[in-house]
Amino acid sequence: MDADVSYTRFARLRRLSWLLAAVGPGLMVMLADTDAGSIITAAQSGARWGYGMVLPLVILIPVLYVIQEITVRLGVVTGKGHGQLIRERYGMKWALLSVGTLFLSAVGALITELSGVAGVGQLFGVPDWMSVGAATVILVALGLTGSYRRIERIGISVGLFELLFILMAFMVHPVPGQLVAGMTSAPWRAPGYLFLLAANVGAVIMPWMIFYQQGAVIDKQLTRARVRTARLDTAVGAIVSQLLMIAVVVATAATIGRTHPNRPLDGVSQIASALTPALGRSLANTLFGLGMLGASFIAALVVSIAAAWAIGEAFGFKHSLNDRPRDAKPFYAIYSLAHIGGALLVILSVNLVALTVDVEVMNAMLLPIVLGFLLLLEAGALPAAWRMKGVYKYTVWTISGAIMAFGVYMAFATL
Fold first, then answer.
1. What predicted TM-score, i.e. pTM, was given to this entire model?
2. Burial of 323 per CB tally in 10 Å (0-12, 13-18, 19+)
């Protein structure tokens, strides 16, 4: 009997270790997806339209999953990054187009994240040069450790501060009846609503997310035997990511959206002050500040790694986070310079609101290119047994087409 119990416990521990070995890339990239720009977009959605944006955010959960799941299969089965696959199958010119535009998007996003850090610092009276400078030093030092697993563990640990958004949503005491009513009576025909909906859709799939997760499963050395667990990691991450967005919508809808609808919420301090009547200034600053800090930190980490990976894949130089800095100098130089350049621009007072809009427009314009290559690679670079088939294939293609259409709409509407 004791032997049976011991064997059962051993089997459970073995399954747990098997699960934990594959978990990480999906959760990491999904926590980064809820970045500073996404949080501001969610806060504006709640302030402007109350609970009317909650249902679309729920619907976007499977959308987020099906797109990112493709990157898992591409990375695990081919053992090659996104930029490398494009270069090998379509040539250097297409690889440079994809990677070059990604890099611009990533740098813009990185500035947005560091601006989020600066905004959090301002809540507590810390000057921009000090908060952004400290974050930059930590991010560069972390990247230079030469260990993907260490970076992943620290990134997720800090990113989990975002869960405070969920606590915050409960603490403002939303009225369940109003929440249900808002979910079932979204103002679909209102132009302003459609614009914010397009912004939320455009924020679901960022170009750097695709490059990051495909590179991450390679650096983590996941095998085909762990694809199911990696899919579970991606699914859980997709749920968590959208729950965080919903929490921010609910928190602002239950406070400023109820008392002062249509009030613009464009920055960290404005969002925190909108929550002050319900939570008190100290608690509002602490909860929202820590959540924004976690979101900005993990997103800054992911976008800079994705950009450095993409350039390394396109040009064929060493680009693994498991390589020591002296063995992969170009890769680590790109990673470090992206952070330093972004920090200097933020310290020189880049406008976060204007920048967020610009980055969203840029990401929207890139969606047809990024998703187009993703679907082409899935259909051509994978063995037949690993490709999508039947109804699922056409469903994913339809969803991708809808995302691209929303992205193009958002770009033209903003311009």
1. 0.89
2. middle
